[in-house]
Amino acid sequence: MLSDGFTEIVVRRHILSKDILPTYNRPCVNNLPQLSSLQFARKMSVTSDTNRFTLVAFDTATNAFIDNFLSLPQNNALFQQEHLLISNASLLFKDKVNFWLMHDEDNRVVGRIGANIAAWNCNVGYIGFLHIDTFHLSTPDIYLVSHSLLHVALAWLKLHISSETNRMVFGPVNLSSFFNYRFRIDDHDWQTNTHMYEPHHPQLYPTLLSSFGFKPIQTHHSFIVPLRPIPAYQDELAGKIYMDPLTMNDLSNPKDIQRIMTDAFDQKPFFDQTLFHSTSQFKTFYIDVLLNSLSDASKDSLFRYSCMARDVNTKEAIGFSILFQIDDRIVYKTVAVLKKYQGIGFKMITAVFQRTSKLAQSDETSPMYMELALAEKRTLEKVVQSCKIDKVYSAKAFCVYMLDEDVSIGGSKL
User: Fold this and answer.
1) 215-231: string of b/e by CB count within 10 Å (b at 16+)?
2) Residue 59 has what pLDDT?
3) pLDDT at residue 192 in the model
4) Which among 381, 319, 332, 387 is positioned nearest to 354, based on CA atoms?
C-alpha cells in the first residue's frame, strides 16, 4: 500500500489462449495487492508492456465522477437512464455498491465497471456498466483493462458478500435485471443497432467475460416481426378480459403495475422484488428510469400502445403490457399477468398484438415492425405461432453469465 491510498498493480505475465485469439497472448492480472489493501485503496496503477493506466474507485459517486463514468461509450443511448441509476445507487444499496474508472496516461477514460450486492440475496453479486474503449486501445490493452476492472470489482464483491461458501456472481447486470443487462452473443455489427431496446456493445464483450472465467447460464431471444393485423382473428378474451389504454395516472401512482409485476415475476431468476419495497421507490427506479430512457415521441407512443388488462366483472387490473415506438417499430418491452390468470398469457399477447397492429395502421408515423424479447426461444416461437406471424426479420440472442466457481480472485477461489 502506497501513500494516499495508492496501490500498484503490475501486469506483465501473459497466458496463451489460442481458442480465443489465435494471434494474441492475453494478459492476466499479476502481483495483485492483498484483499485487505483493495478494501481501502482509492486509486491503483495498472501497467502493461507499453502503457500505464490508473484505476479510480468511488463508492459514493459525485457528479464529476458520474460525468466521467458516462463519457464511455461516446454513443451511449442509455445515458439518462444510467445517470439516474448511478446517482441514486446508494439510496438502493447503501454501502453495497461501488464503481470504478480506468484512465490512460492522457487522463482519458478507457474503461468502467460497477458492482453491487443483489437486493434479493446477500450472497449474490452483480457486475455491470462494463465498457471498454475498443476504438483507441490495442487488443492486448483491451484485455488488460477489462480483466483489471473485473478483478477489482470481483475482489470488492468477495469482501462484501456475506457467505464464504455460497457466493455467486452474475453479469452483466446494471444493478438489477429491471435495468439494462445481458450481452448480445451472435455475430453483429454493433454500430448498426437493429434491436433498439437490447444491449448494444462491441462484439468482443462476451469474449472478455468468458476469457476471465464467466460462463453463459441463461439466453434470451429477441425477434423483429412485421406488424400487421392477424388474419381471421378471434378474440378469445372477449367477455372475460378487456384492455384499457395506459394513463399517466397508472404511472404516477403505479401501485397496480407494481402489484402485478411483483406477483407475476416473483419466481423468475434475477427478479429483485425486494429492491422496490414501496410504491414511491418503485416509481423512482422503474417508472422514472423507463421514462428517462425514452424520447418525447416515444413517451407519447407509450400511452398510445401500452395497456392495462382488466377483469370484465371485477374491473380489477390483472395484467399490463408496456409498448412504445422507436423509429419504424413498436418495442414490446414488458408483459405481466397475475399468477391466477397466467393461463391467458399468450392470449393476452395475441390480443395486444392485434390491438397494436390496428392502432399502428392509423398512426401517421406508420410503424412497420414489432420487437419482442422473452427469455426462452420456444416462448417467442409460440408467440409467433399464436399471432400468425409468417416472417421473422431478425432473431438475436443475448446472454447472462455466471462466474465459474473455480476462478481465483485475490489468491483464493471466489
Assistant:
1) eeeeebbbbbbebbebe
2) 66
3) 56
4) 387
Distance set, CA 262 to CA 316, 337, 397 (Å)? 16, 10, 26
Helices 345-361, 296-305: axis angle to 10 degrees equals 120
Q: What is the pLDDT of residue 279?
A: 85
Q: Which of 376, 334, 346 is nearest to 230 (CA)?
A: 346
Can you tell me the distance from the alpha carbon of 129 to that of 151, in angstroms, rounded to the nearest whole number? 15
CA pair distance 28, 212, nearest whole angstrom = 8
Q: Judge whether residue 311 has pLDDT over 50.
A: yes
pTM across the whole model:
0.81
pLDDT score recorded for residue 50: 65
For the CA atoms of 306, 307, 308, 310, what is the dihedral angle to 10 degrees?
A: -160
Residue 38 CB neighbours (<10 A): 22
pLDDT number for residue 115: 93
Cell of 374: 422473452
Angstrom distance (rounded) from CA 135 to CA 38: 29
Domain ranges in the chain are: 3-181, 228-367
Q: Which of 45-59, 120-134, 275-289, 368-382 has the highest mean pLDDT?
A: 120-134
Alpha-carbon distance of 156 to 141, in angstroms, equals 22
Q: Does domain 228-367 have CATH number 3.40.630.30?
A: yes
Mean of all residue pLDDT scores within the chain: 78
Say if 3-181 and 228-367 have the same CATH topology: yes
What residues pair up with 114 in beta bridges, in sequence order? 99, 128
- As assigned by CATH, the class of the 3-181 domain is alpha beta
**43 φ, ψ to 5°?**
-135, 150
What burial letters (b/e) apply to 306-342, b meaning 16+ CB within 10 Å? bbbbbeeeeeebbbbbbbbbbeebbbbbbbbbbeebe
Q: Which three cell numbers stand for residue 217?
A: 447460464
In the structure grid, which three cell numbers stand for residue 265, read together?
A: 415475476
Burial state string for 279-300 with b = 16 or more CB within 10 A and e = fewer than 16: beebbbbbbebbbbbbeeebee
